[in-house]
Amino acid sequence: MTAGVGDALEPSPWNLANALTVFRLVLVPCFAVFLWLSEGNAASWLVAAAGVFVAGIVTDYYDGALARSRGTVTSFGKLADPIADKALTGTALVGLCLLNLLSWPVAVIIVIREVGVTALRFVVIRRGIIAASWGGKAKTALQMLAIAWYLWPWQAMASWLHDTVGFGSSLHVLSDIGPPLMALAVAVTVITGLDYVRQAWKMRQ
Question: How far is CA 91 from CA 48, 49, 194, in A?
Answer without folding.
Answer: 15, 11, 23
